[in-house]
Amino acid sequence: MFSPQGPSLRELMIQAMSSVEGGYDLLAPKFDRTPFRTPDDVLDACADALRPLGPFDRGLDVCCGTGAGLGVLESLCAGRVTGVDFSGGMLAQARDAYRDAEYVRADARALPLAEAFDLAVTFGALGHFLPAERPAMFAGVHRALRPGGLFAFPISAPPPVTSSAYWAASGFDLAMRVRNALWRPPFVMYYRTVSLDALRADLTAAGFTVSTVPLSSLGRRADSSPHFGLVLARKSDAR
């Protein structure tokens, strides 16, 4: 799962015993050599699905990390793109990779932005927010978008209960809950708290109109349903 240039087991253990912010500061220089980075095929599929929904002017990557999503925005947006993250280490890596972007260091639960963007995206970050924290994040994204703006992110289909992926995710979440019960500060990263129904309800409560489109290029399951979909949350164009 990790390249020889990726983090060692010791480094991962130190990260896991840190806060979310501190852990990602430590991991940042090697993050792109881990399986935690959103794969290029997922990024490309999202860009292809979003392109017909434009044109877009300014773009925002929420929880941008080392900047993989900024490449998607740069391919779609005519104006400047902005990355937001609360890890200074991750932002430093993003600045090196995407020098034309703007950056804001901020907590996504309290975005300091208002009606500035046409398109907002996030990749692989939702598991870092407890269900009770998502409404504040979604409200901040809604506030950051211009009227008619779009918030988009990929979501994977839940693995069947008989699959190894289901039990691996369940085991990881259990280990995180035990770790957070015994150790402070907490490290919030859960795989099984991000269901489509819950996300749809939280986005709707934040004022979005929500739809989904399949990312068919990423394949389909045995029942012909797609492995991945793209959530599209549209802000009303009325002021």
TrEMBL record:
InterPro entries in UniProt: Methyltransf_25 (IPR041698), Methyltransf_Superfamily (IPR050508), SAM-dependent_MTases_sf (IPR029063)
Keyword Transferase assigned: yes
One of the Pfam families matching this protein, by short name: Methyltransf_25
Keyword Lipoprotein appears in the UniProt entry: no
The Methyltransferase domain, residue ranges: 60-149
Keywords: Methyltransferase, Transferase
Superkingdom of origin: Bacteria
A single GO molecular function term of this UniProt record: methyltransferase activity
Protein name in UniProt: Class I SAM-dependent methyltransferase
Organism per entry: Actinospica durhamensis
